[in-house]
Amino acid sequence: MATFILVPGAWHGAWAFEAVTPLLERAGHTVHALTLTGLRPDDDAATVVGANLDTHADDVLGLLDRARITDATLVGHSYGGMVISAAADRAGGRVSRLVHLDAYVPRDGQSCWSLTTESYRQSFVDGAADTGYAVRPPLRAPRGGDPRRRPHPLASLVQTIRLTGAADQVPRRDFIYCSGWEDGTPFAALRARLQADPDWHVHDLPTAHNAMREAPSAVARLLI
């Protein structure tokens, strides 16, 4: 059975996977859903200010160490794709599979900022206007978004990733493309690139970005 480490996207916590986690566990798998540093309810301003992409990669690596995991499947949603890429590159062979769930797949020297759309970059700037260090969750019409979302550390969105190429040696790499928000997705070109790469397995889901909420059973099936 697999050991899954689930990494949420910006503004979200472990709760983002609350509908998927029990499905994986009922199938016999071990699941660790993370809330990244700076996104926890009791994190103070100093913690948020100091949190960047390296911090979030260390959150994953720290879990590998504490739980003595040597054969992990890392699942990253959206911004979480940056995190699992950085973590896998530094994990020393303890990651056997990467799953980018409608998520960024960076190359060395790229960042969430450089990979996303101008619309998202503007939302980062506007959302950080109050504090300068934490990006407010964007408004989501018509429901306004989950009230559990928290301001996201700005540094983690703009820091460039440093990759040695070790993540490219992970035995299996999957990309799940959510096709139900074609007017806003930043991942269409990425899907085309990875579909042409024989080292990647590309899957489509006809959902909007938060597939874990819209189609948890379909997400769980792809992960299993």
Query: Given the helix and strand composition, which structural class is it?
Result: alpha/beta
Number of strands: 8
Overall morphology: globular
Rg over CA atoms, rounded to whole Å, is: 16 Å
Low-confidence stretches: none
* Domain unit count: 1
CATH class type: Alpha Beta
Per DSSP, the total helix count is 10
The CATH topology: Rossmann fold
Detail the topology: elements first, then pairings:
Blueprint: E1 3-7, H1 21-26, E2 30-33, H2 45-50, H3 53-66, E3 72-77, H4 80-90, E4 95-101, H5 112-115, H6 118-127, E5 134-135, E6 152-153, H7 154-158, E7 172-178, H8 188-195, E8 201-205, H9 211-214, H10 216-223
Parallel strand pairs: 1-2, 1-3, 3-4, 4-7, 7-8
Antiparallel strand pairs: 5-6
Short description:
This protein is an alpha/beta fold. It has helices spanning 21-26, 45-50, 53-66, 80-90, 112-115, 118-127, 154-158, 188-195, 211-214, 216-223; strands at residues 3-7, 30-33, 72-77, 95-101, 134-135, 152-153, 172-178, 201-205. It has a single domain (3-223), classed as 3-Layer(aba) Sandwich (Rossmann fold).
Key traits:
224 residues; 6-stranded parallel sheet; alpha/beta; Rossmann fold
Verbal overview:
There is one protein chain. The protein has 224 residues and is an alpha/beta fold. The chain has one domain (3-223): Alpha/Beta hydrolase fold, catalytic domain (Rossmann fold, 3-Layer(aba) Sandwich), CATH 3.40.50. It contains 10 helices and 8 strands. Strand 3 (72-77), helix 4 and strand 4 (95-101) form a beta-alpha-beta unit. It is globular, with a radius of gyration of 16 Å.
